[in-house]
Design goal:
With 125 residues, the chain is mostly beta strands. It is 0% helix and 32% strand. It has a single domain, classed as Thrombin, subunit H, CATH 2.40.10. The chain is built from no helices and eight strands. A hairpin with a 5-residue loop joins strand 2 and strand 3. The termini are close together.
Length: 125
């Protein structure tokens, strides 16, 4: 079930930003880091990733910007990694947050709630 909400949400979430406007030919080695820091690609193939959130069971949720998609990544960085497209044709879905078992996706004009998201990943939400 998807619930549309117009309220501003203040939900605890793990938010970060990923490489802006990432392209297939982007060289991660071009990023300059302070001494003692390192960077590596965690999940490949997700164009224009912007917002990240971690679900209760470790699923990584990724909101894109110009691509208009939201992905779920099971076992991120692990041997059983699986990328699932949750939604497409969204308008700048760059804000994602998890609260309890729900995933919240912020578009320009609305916020979508996907209830019990990690239990429903294989259902073609």
């Amino acid at each position: 079930m998807i619930r549309k909400t117009t309220l501003a949400l203040c939900a605890p979430a793990v938010l970060a930003f990923a490489a802006g406007g990432a392209h297939a030919d982007f060289d991660i080695g071009e990023i300059r880091l302070p001494p003692g820091f390192e960077i590596e690609e965690y999940v490949s193939g997700l164009r224009n990733a912007r917002g990240l959130a971690i679900g209760e069971n470790g699923t990584l949720f990724v909101g894109t910007r110009n691509v208009g998609k939201v992905y779920a990544v099971r076992d991120p960085g692990g041997p059983g990694q699986e990328v699932i497209e949750l939604a497409s044709r969204l308008i700048l879905p760059n804000g994602v947050a998890v609260r309890g078992s729900s995933l919240f996706v912020a578009e320009v004009h609305r916020i979508l709630e996907y209830e019990n998201i990690e239990q429903r990943l294989g259902e073609g939400i």
